[in-house]
Design brief:
The complex is a heterodimer of chains A (555) and B (235). With 555 residues, chain A is α/β, with parallel strands linked by helices. Chain A folds into 4 domains: 19-115, Glutaredoxin (3-Layer(aba) Sandwich); 147-350, 3-Layer(aba) Sandwich (Rossmann fold); 360-443, Ubiquitin-like (UB roll); 448-551, NADH-ubiquinone oxidoreductase 51kDa subunit, iron-sulphur binding domain (de novo design (two linked rop proteins)). Chain A is 43% helix and 14% strand. Chain A is built from 23 helices and 14 strands. A 5-stranded mixed sheet of chain A has the order 2-1-3-4-5, with helices on one face. A 5-stranded mixed sheet of chain A has the order 11-10-14-12-13. Chain B folds into 2 domains: 4-77, Ubiquitin-like (UB roll) (Roll), CATH 3.10.20; 96-234, Alpha-Beta Plaits (2-Layer Sandwich), CATH 3.30.70. Helix content of chain B is 24%, strand content 15%. Chain B is built from 6 helices and 10 strands. Chain B has helices spanning 21-27, 79-95, 110-118, 153-162, 197-201, 223-230; strands at 4-8, 11-15, 51-54, 61-62, 73-75, 134-135, 141-144, 167-170, 177-180, 207-209. In chain B, β3 and β4 form a beta hairpin. The model of chain B has no long low-confidence stretch (mean pLDDT 94). Classes of the chains: A alpha/beta (555), B alpha+beta (235). The interface between A and B is medium-sized, with 34 and 35 residues. The complex binds flavin mononucleotide (FMN), iron/sulfur cluster (SF4) (2 copies) and FE2/S2 (inorganic) cluster. One iron/sulfur cluster binds next to α4 of chain B.
């Protein structure tokens, strides 16, 4: 397929869609699906059929519409150009199918309409999620109509790999999987490696509790990720790719497989992509839901069929990765940024964000906040904007105490620092990390010792057990936190807590152990008075006393 | 062949590309404590006792897995490293059951020797004493999980030298344990050849020969690099 053929394919699909004067987009991503959007879709489909209005009204399955907690969500669109209107409807039930269709004529129920000028929508800047909720992820033509694979085919026909690489360099893109490593630098390392075979691996293991940004992207717009992988493969000289997805992500897996099949079929992936000499074969591999398998060396071991345990680096995967070959491994969101960067230029991307953190970041906003869901905001947006504007503040007038970012590898940032613009350096400076994008809002009823204990229990349970400091250290740290939370600890326990945090952090083999102490260290730093109160037998948040029953020891 | 020059603990030493810090240090009689590594077997970097400070590296690096580089400056001893090594030993002693006085390997145990040489004289966290099983189903050998430090030396010698791959690790985290075949009793293993190599490389009293008195329970590990050498694939 040539770029022109791709363009006419896109044009055809757009024309087809413009024939409909009414369009309904039903979110069928996991969150809305679990709230019953499948039955809603069927009901709408039956009603349209019954009315015989199928030639006027288009009904489409789409991915995430953002405001997940208010699902099932439906976007109702009417007209084109100056008469174009959009209405987002929340909590739509299947029995409302008929009245919903009547809504195009009579107006939609106000109590179910979500104002689209909410800061939740207005303050977002969508690059990665640009087509999420707009296209049908099961139809490649829909993605193509929205611009998918254009950057790839243009690159294959008109640009050198070095050119693509330079674009990524200029963009300043950094890894969205947690550590924020400069993507261009990583690509260069793999590109420079001399080997007859190289691999591109997409990390879709997404194991942080409460995080579902990557799932949302894969379910809503899988082709963007595949196109990003193909561009990466072209830039570094790879011809095979793997997407490593956790097995629990049923819908994401199904849509990915479907997308790969469709792209292969029309020559946008597979052999001789776009009629050029570039080959790129992609396979999906399933992870069995072990958090540590998101760590890159463990992930590669798992793809190779071995036990998913990390190994010491160096050598880094870029030098010796999958089956010993140079391997580029990037996160879903990192790769999903690539097509836009190549299409619109690295300089454009670098104009968004802060000095050292470019572009946008997707967060899964959760916890004690009015609007929960998936948001994409420019780097540099303040925590205050995220919590109080996009998130709509804390329900019931409660006071916000902190936000937790970075999951089990991150920390809690107290409300007094909310004016901080969110970027990699600032969050690290506050003792947390950007992480992959989980953002949990906490009110005064959250106990920081309890939170630290929760995340330590997570790390203890997810430790692979290979290295001593993490295998045993997380158990001891959890035990100490439990003793503190239950009001049975003394200052000596606090000393041990700090000492073993330091040990586990600096001697563990992989990032899991190295960052396991972070939630403890950040709460110790920002909320020392809460720890002291527990030593006196008081829990300021009222969570730990009367003493919560000691958790079962493992095993 | 090119030769690198590097500095270990202030001493200038020569090394061949591809050698590990540990190998070079040993060639020059610089002692680095180790537990999981054993000459002749692949390295895993799991026990973390051999961590060293390498100038310019953001983290401590295990000497057993880190390859040397030209101009590298390594410190194998410091107050901080000593503290970490003692801390790791404390965790190991607390994890299962290491009551030396009642162990078949008393006096011939790497763990015990490390505690002595690194000055770990008490454990500040409670012993977990998990009460694990002892697999005595094998005719000549036994495995006492209570003494196992999960170094995986048995797993590697069996796979890499004997070629049987009887042993592996099951479970994860603190619940990890060594299993033979598909977690069958060792005595019923269809892959075990009964060679006893695993017993010889086990650093503690976890794998032992039945019917031996404490004084006789010395282990021999020199055969591993010898065999590798004979087979022409010395690591
Ligand atoms: C315990 C652990 C879990 C991880 N889980 C993930 C994950 O689920 N997804 C991900 O993209 N990266 C994860 N990472 C980071 C990866 O190791 C790796 O750095 C990342 O995939 C690189 O991609 P990036 O440069 O695009 O961020 C994890 C790291 C650790 C230590
Ligand atoms: S730090 Fe934890 S998860 Fe990582 S290798 Fe060590 S035991 Fe396994
Ligand atoms: S049985 Fe011995 S050799 Fe095997 S892992 Fe345990 S301590 Fe190491
Ligand atoms: S000897 Fe190097 S980590 Fe165990």
């Amino acid at each position: 397929m040539t770029p022109e053929e791709l363009r006419s394919r896109a044009e055809r699909r757009r024309l087809e869609e413009s024939r409909f004067s009414e369009r309904l987009r039903v979110c069928t991503a996991t969150s809305c699906a679990s709230l019953g959007s499948g039955a809603l879709f069927d009901a709408l489909s039956a009603e349209i059929h019954r009315r015989g209005t199928g030639d006027r009204c288009e009904l489409k399955r789409v991915g995430c519409l953002g405001l997940c907690a208010a699902g099932p969500l439906v976007m109702a669109e009417q007209g084109t150009g100056s008469t174009h209107t959009e209405s987002l409807l929340r909590e739509v039930r299947p029995e409302q199918a008929a009245s919903l269709l009547d809504g195009f004529r009579d107006g939609f129920p106000a109590e179910q309409s979500v104002p689209l000028d909410l800061p939740f929508f207005r303050k977002q800047r969508r690059i990665v999620s640009e087509a999420c909720g707009r296209i049908d992820p099961d139809r490649i033509d829909d993605a193509v109509a929205a611009g998918a694979y254009r950057a790839l085919l243009e690159a294959l026909h008109e640009r050198t790999p070095a050119d693509v690489l330079a674009e990524i360099d200029r963009s300043g893109l950094r890894g969205r999987g947690g550590a924020g490593y400069p993507t261009g630098l990583k690509w260069h390392t793999v590109a420079k490696a001399e080997a007859s075979q190289k691999f591109v691996v997409c990390n879709a293991d997404e194991g942080d509790p409460g995080a579902y940004m990557d799932r949302s992207v894969l379910e809503s717009d899988p082709h963007r990720v595949l196109e990003g992988m193909a561009l990466a493969a072209y830039a570094v000289g790879a011809s095979e790719g793997f997407v490593y997805v956790r097995a629990e992500y049923l819908l994401a897996i199904e849509r990915l497989r479907q997308a790969i099949g469709q792209a292969n079929q029309i020559g946008l992936l597979g052999s001789a992509v776009g009629g050029t000499a570039f080959h790129f074969h992609v396979e999906v591999r399933l992870g069995a839901g072990a958090y540590v398998c998101g760590e890159e060396t463990a992930l590669l071991a798992s793809i190779e069929g071995g036990r998913g345990t990390p190994r010491p680096r160096p050598p880094y995967p870029a030098a010796a990765g999958l089956f010993g070959a140079p391997t580029l491994i990037n996160n879903v969101e990192t790769l999903a940024n690539v097509p836009a960067i190549v299409a619109r230029g690295g300089d454009w991307f670098a104009s968004i964000g802060t000095e050292k953190s470019k572009g946008t970041k997707i967060f899964a906003l959760a916890g004690k906040v009015a609007h929960t869901g998936v948001i994409e905001v420019p780097m540099g947006t303040t925590l205050h904007e995220i919590v109080f504007e996009l998130g709509g503040g804390i329900p019931d007038g409660a006071r916000c105490k902190a936000v937790q970012t970075g999951g089990p590898s991150g920390g809690c940032i107290p409300a007094r620092f909310f004016e901080t613009p969110v970027d990699y350096e600032n969050l690290a400076g506050l003792g947390s990390i950007m992480g992959s994008g989980g953002l949990i809002v906490m009110d005064e009823q959250t106990c920081m010792v309890d939170i630290a204990r929760f995340f330590m229990a997570f790390c203890r349970d997810e430790s692979c057990g290979k290295c001593v400091p993490c295998r045993v250290g997380t158990v001891e740290l959890h035990q100490l936190l439990d003793t503190i939370a239950n009001g049975r600890a003394g200052t000596r326990d606090m000393e041990l807590l700090e000492e073993f945090c330091d040990l586990v952090r600096h001697t563990s083999l992989c990032g899991l152990g190295q960052s396991a102490p972070n939630p403890v260290l950040s709460t110790l730093r920002h909320f020392p008075e809460e720890y002291r109160a527990h030593l006196r037998g008081q829990c300021p948040a009222g969570v730990c006393f009367p003493a919560s029953p000691a958790e079962e020891p493992p095993r | 062949m090119s030769v690198y020059t590097l500095e270990i603990d202030g001493r200038e030493v020569g090394a061949r590309p591809g050698e590990t810090i540990l190998a070079v240090a040993r060639e020059h009689q610089i002692e680095i404590p180790t537990l999981c590594s054993l000459e002749g077997l692949s390295t895993v970097g799991a026990c973390r006792l051999c961590l060293t400070e390498v100038e310019g590296a953001s983290r401590l690096l295990p000497a057993c897995t880190t390859a040397v580089a030209e101009g590298m400056r390594v410190r194998t001893q410091s107050e901080r490293i000593a503290r970490y090594r003692r801390g790791i030993l404390e965790l190991l002693f607390a994890e299962r059951n290491h009551q030396c006085a009642v162990c078949v390997s008393n006096g011939h145990c790497d763990l015990q020797a490390l505690a002595t040489s690194l000055g770990m004289d008490h454990v500040r966290v409670p012993y977990r004493d998990p009460l694990l099983s002892v697999d005595a189903s094998h005719e000549r050998f036994a495995l006492d999980h209570n003494r196992c430090v999960l170094c995986t030396r048995c797993v590697r010698v069996c796979d890499e030298i004997e070629g049987a791959h009887t042993w592996d690790v099951a479970g994860r985290g603190i619940g990890s344990w060594i299993v033979s075949d598909l977690a069958d009793p060792w005595g019923e293993s269809s892959s075990c050849t009964g060679c006893g190599k695993c017993v010889q490389v086990c650093p503690t009293g976890a794998l032992f020969e039945k019917g031996k008195a404490i004084g006789e329970m010395t282990k021999r590990t020199a055969f591993v690099p010898m065999l590798q050498h004979m087979r022409g694939r010395r690591r």
